[in-house]
Amino acid sequence: MMMTTSRRRFGPQHLRLIIGVIVVAIYLFPVYWMIATSLKSQADIFASPPKFIPWPINFSSYRGAVIHNSVVHRAILSSIIISLGVMILTLALATPAAYALARFKLRGSGIMTLLLVLGQLLPAVVIAGPLFVLFRRIELTNSFQAMILADTTATLPFAVIVLRPYFLTVPGELEQAAMLDGANRFRVFWEIVLPLVQPGLVTVAAFAFLMAWGEFIFALSLNLNEKIQPITVALNKFSGQYGTRWNDMMAVSTTVAIPIIVVFVALQRFIVSGITTGATKE
Predict the structure, then answer these.
(1) Is 206 inside any structural domain?
(2) Whose CA is closest to 37, among 250, 220, 275, 225?
(3) Model's pTM, two decimal places?
(4) Residue 177 and residue 75 share a domain
(5) pLDDT tens sequence across 209-254
(6) Which residues touch 238 (CB under 8 Å, ≥6 apart)?
(7) How many CB atoms lie within 10 A of CB 183?
(8) How far apart are CA 104 and CA 96, in angstroms?
(9) CATH code at 80?
(10) How many whole angstroms separate alpha carbon 82 and alpha carbon 148?
(11) Does residue 105 contact residue 94 with C-beta atoms inside 8 Å?
């Protein structure tokens, strides 16, 4: 009787829960190790056996590499400018493009959608060379504009692919009724359609910001001006010829990860809804 009760208590759902916890722990361990390393002294980092719990806690890396480091401050500001620029430009271009693909019967719209999918698959290292040649001819290298435009080439296909299913779910009768009442196409689009696809817009905005925040290839290849280099390039400089100060690098990395965590925690409801709904509504 007791054995039957224990078997009922431990069912398949408990096994799935245990497996889920183990998988999450494996994925989160590198994040924990990054934070733990940032709180260790240089000697504790190379201790054998390794110290999994940083003790005593050492904040010197944050004071030296983050708080009192003007290079990191400037790089973080550059990353903010680039990420916000990419987010705004992506929304400005992807929203009308996705609306047009969803609402109007354009010739070749299927081919355009396929090209967007293929463009999403291209790695940044393949695009960096041609973009460098193009931007150099028009004297746009070593500027925020170059990095914003380059990053947008990566975020734009994703944004259109995510937003198009949302516009497909908006009933055309709503737009027709509004236009019969005297509203023009732009007003209908701005006041009626956009509020209905808000989860998709928030999802695209969040991912565009985060993709630009962590981009490295374009930032390294299109910009040699240290005054406007983003934080991803500044992090690379902690790895020197004679060794790497891992605690300093991990302190900056932890600081850089904070905006990502804040964005996902604050917008998780919209992001999850945007991904799942946009993936199923076709």
Answers:
(1) yes
(2) 250
(3) 0.83
(4) yes
(5) 989 998 888 988 888 888 888 998 888 877 764 567 788 889 998 9
(6) 65, 244, 245, 248, 249, 252
(7) 16
(8) 11
(9) 1.10.3720.10
(10) 6
(11) no
